[in-house]
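Reopening this one. Same input as before:
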Amino acid sequence: MWITSLLSLFVVFNCALALNIPHPNCDKYFRYQSLDNGNFIGIFTANTENVRELYWEAKFSSIGSTPDQIGDINPYPSTEGYLDSVRNGKDVQVYVTFNKIKNELPLLIHFSLNGETLCSNHRYAAPSTTVRVARRISVLLEERVMPPDSAYNHRYPESDPNYYYV
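Same output, byte for byte:
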């Protein structure tokens, strides 16, 4: 009898610790993904054929007051992978990390690309926190670089993480 009670308590305890993953109704452009270490990331996907500059913007709603749960937007799976996708005319992806999440992942409530809203949802009721993350990523093609005496030549510092040379 005590084994049954202990097993029931264990099941209830594990259910209470389960992380809730929201459904933002944005399957075409966004998904949550778990990592091997138990953490989660959110991956955004965009069809960017012939587009070399993208302004990614997302807003998330979290239950409670936890503004530091969402990391910056970064190329996915890496900068080189992002550039390969651009070179080959494939969909490009970026991701955000979710930090110190205990109960429920933040809900994606807004996603736009180059100012065009692709997804939106209602935020959580109070008490909740809304966090906005954004990043502009430009890919400059070498064949478009003008000679130094050209009035159209703009130099971008190679150390700028938002400009990539293909």
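So the earlier flakiness isn't reproducible anymore. For the record, The beta strands are 30-34, 40-46, 53-63, 74-76, 92-98, 107-113, 116-120, 128-140, 163-165.
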